[in-house]
Write a structure and sequence with these properties.
It is globular, with a radius of gyration of 23 Å. The relative contact order is 0.14. The two termini are about 25 Å apart. The chain folds into two domains: about 1-30 and about 395-530, Golgi alpha-mannosidase II (Immunoglobulin-like), CATH 2.60.40; about 40-390, TIM Barrel (Alpha-Beta Barrel). β8 (about 135), α3 (about 145-165) and β9 form a beta-alpha-beta unit. α9 (about 325-340) packs parallel to α10. The protein has eleven helices and 26 strands. With about 525 residues, the protein is an alpha/beta fold. Bound molecules: 2-acetamido-2-deoxy-beta-D-glucopyranose (12 copies). Keywords: Signal. This is Beta-glucuronidase C-terminal domain-containing protein. It holds the Pfam family Glyco_hydro_79C. InterPro entries: GH (IPR017853), GH79_Enzymes (IPR052974), GlcAase_C (IPR031728). It comes from Cladophialophora yegresii CBS 114405.
């Protein structure tokens, strides 16, 4: 493990609004060097053909958005194809279309709950060169439907992915909800960790045997490793630690301990942008449950990741999960994860989902386009930088506040970037309802953050430039930019376009005593880049 040489030393943070300088002791709890593809995605199984297209009509808009992230973090996001619908899908060898789904609005208005896939489904794995995948196999369906689907699809998956496109393997989405699912339980009430482990081992051994027969090089190249157990959370009907103790990793084929996380629910009473998402305290509490669990499993030496996560479960809430405030939440959430040792974060999305980073196709429910949360993903990737080029570790510069936080990025042991996130909600329209306020409305408040570098070090600082994540307010769902760049579909198909009507290229100077000050409008974020 590389221990960063902490140049920031004692970082003094002055929150000018309340004029109380906070003394923050030297950062000694920076993360280990991050693994590549920290910014990754999870795509709903039933939506994957929409997102990827197929070999005759690849979805190049999606690919452009993924390539932007590759250009920042050095490798493509890893795509996990899964979610609730991975356990609903059955396989029909003679079906000519990729996916046939039917909705049951009493179970979900957002995705089909009866799904049949044909061999063409796997053609969608051919559209994004350089991208690697985790295909989520069904575990929920018991009996012959589940067994036939597993046996029918493993050879197709391993041939479609091969050694160059397979990242990891997954069996079953959120089995800790199988007995209690509000969409209908799929296991009896007596089904416990021992039963789950026995079934998981049985079925992963079947998968392994089929891969051995059909794609032996996947096994010999060491690419038969799982994300497991893909639990929904830390307090459901199966316990992760018990599961581990019951022998989940008996075959030594698990590469990452995988849990899922949502901050709250889309229709949970009392959920608001400010109180639930633009709230650093709520993010800290949500992640801490996982940190507790990961500490108990630290002895395994395996990294702990969030294989599916986003703001509000049940696909997000309009006005909350699709607003700029959710993009700011996403920055704080992901950087807090990075700083505390969560090794990778797969942001979940599906067609029409409110929390999606982008809508891949036009539907009656949503317009194809880049959505606010994507800009948060971009800022996270920009802050982490090229993870394949050097050792990047992230430190939480805890401001002890619900409405602000900051992070430091150390590259090969040296402070290179500071991220600042200002989370006070600011509506650009009257009560977020799209009515533009009168000119008399009070101006958008700002807040000044000051960081103190050790005075002796500032002469070595050659440059200091700012990149900002901006929109008209936390309620904005369009007009979002990062560093003056738009990734909107209508400009250049999702490729970066520098706008000439947004300020960029801002340069700061450190004061003689090593103080750096930056002023942020409420509901915005910034990266300070230090050139030594
Ligand atoms: C990231 O770093 C690697 C290794 O130095 C380099 O080959 C690659 O071109 C870099 N990627 C980007 C997007 O800068
Ligand atoms: C499988 O697909 C074929 C072709 O669409 C269809 O005729 C058949 O009924 C399907 N089988 C099942 C079990 O649904
Ligand atoms: C490929 O995608 C196009 C566009 O969505 C669709 O019309 C076509 O049916 C798909 N091909 C197959 C074999 O599913
Ligand atoms: C199989 O699934 C059904 C629900 O789909 C459930 O009623 C039954 O108990 C399950 N059986 C086992 C052995 O898990
Ligand atoms: C699961 O239930 C079986 C049968 O009651 C029992 O033998 C086993 O100890 C239980 N496992 C756990 C982890 O509680
Ligand atoms: C696992 O496989 C064994 C041996 O084939 C079988 O007896 C057992 O019922 C299976 N258990 C489950 C949960 O599928
Ligand atoms: C922020 O989240 C915490 C923890 O959930 C909660 O106690 C607090 O009330 C929230 N703050 C606001 C302003 O809603
Ligand atoms: C994490 O564990 C600590 C120590 O056991 C406990 O005090 C804390 O409440 C736990 N936090 C969460 C969020 O579960
Ligand atoms: C999507 O649009 C259809 C048709 O207007 C509607 O029935 C359905 O409820 C909408 N779904 C959601 C999640 O709003
Ligand atoms: C890291 O250390 C700083 C300074 O001691 C502290 O304020 C912060 O809470 C710590 N962060 C974590 C995630 O432990
Ligand atoms: C912004 O508008 C929303 C939606 O009407 C409202 O709930 C919220 O209180 C407003 N926030 C602020 C900071 O005015
Ligand atoms: C800035 O330019 C973009 C792209 O041309 C445009 O969509 C947007 O409305 C402009 N914003 C303002 C505030 O004029």
């Amino acid at each position: 493990m590389l221990v960063p040489r902490v140049i920031a030393g004692s970082v003094l943070v002055k929150v000018a609004l309340c004029a109380i300088p906070l003394s923050i002791s030297p950062v000694q709890n920076a993360s280990k060097p991050l693994l590549e593809s920290f910014v990754s995605y999870s795509i709903e199984f039933s939506s994957f053909p929409d997102f990827a297209g197929n070999s005759s009509q690849p979805n190049t808009f999606s690919y452009n958005l993924l390539t932007n992230l590759r250009d920042l973090q050095g490798s493509y996001p890893i795509i996990r194809v899964g979610g609730n619908t991975e356990d609903y899908a059955t396989f029909n060898e003679s079906q000519t279309v990729a996916l046939v789904g039917s909705f049951d609005f009493s179970r979900s208005r957002d995705y089909p709950t009866t799904i049949s896939i044909g061999p063409e489904y796997f053609d969608s794995y051919s559209t994004w060169p350089g991208v690697t995948y985790i295909h989520g196999f069904s575990m929920g369906k018991n009996g012959s439907a589940g067994y036939d689907t597993l046996v029918g699809t493993v050879p197709l998956v391993c041939k479609a992915l091969g050694t160059s496109k397979v990242a990891y393997w997954e069996l079953g989405n959120e089995p800790d909800l199988f007995k209690t699912s509000s969409q209908g339980p799929v296991r009896p009430s007596w089904w416990n960790e021992t039963d789950y482990v026995e079934e998981w081992l049985n079925k992963t051994r079947i998968i392994r045997q089929l891969v051995q027969q059909n794609c032996p090089d996947v096994i010999t190249s060491g690419k038969f490793k799982f994300y497991a157990p893909n639990f929904a959370g830390t307090s459901n009907s199966l316990n992760l630690i018990t599961t581990w103790n019951a022998g989940l990793n008996a075959d030594n084929d698990i590469a990452f301990i995988d849990s899922h996380n949502y901050i709250g629910g889309a229709t949970q009473p009392g959920v608001t942008l400010q109180g639930t998402l633009m709230n650093h305290t709520s993010t800290v509490l949500s992640i801490n449950k996982h940190l507790n669990e990961s500490r108990l499993l630290a002895y395994t030496g395996l990294p702990y990741i969030l294989g599916e996560t986003n703001s509000l479960y049940n696909e997000g809430a309009p006005g909350l999960s699709n607003a700029f405030g959710a993009a700011l939440w996403g920055v704080d959430f992901n950087l807090y994860c990075a700083a505390t040792g969560i090794a990778r974060v797969h942001m979940h999305q599906g067609t029409n989902y409110r929390y999606q980073s982008w809508q891949p196709i036009d539907t009656v429910n949503a317009t194809r386009g880049t959505k606010a949360p994507y800009y948060g993903n971009i800022m996270v990737a920009a802050f982490l930088g090229n993870l394949t080029a050097g050792n990047v570790s992230i430190a939480d510069v805890e401001l002890g506040s619900t409405y602000q936080n900051a992070y430091a990025a150390y590259v090969d042991g040296r402070l290179e970037r500071i991220a600042v996130i200002q989370l006070n909600a600011y509506n650009s329209t009257v009560n977020g309802r799209g009515i533009v306020p009168a000119a008399t409305t009070k101006p958008r408040p700002t807040e000044t953050f000051s960081f103190q570098l050790p005075a002796g070090q500032t002469s070595a600082l050659k440059g200091l430039h700012v990149q900002r994540l901006l929109a008209n307010g936390s309620d904005a769902i369009t007009g979002i930019t990062f560093d003056g760049v738009s990734y909107n579909l209508e400009l250049d198909g999702g490729k970066p376009v520098t706008l000439n009507n947004v300020t960029r290229g801002e340069v700061l100077r450190a004061a003689q005593d090593g103080t750096i000050s930056v002023t942020l409008p409420w509901s915005s974020a910034a990266i300070l880049n230090l050139q030594w």
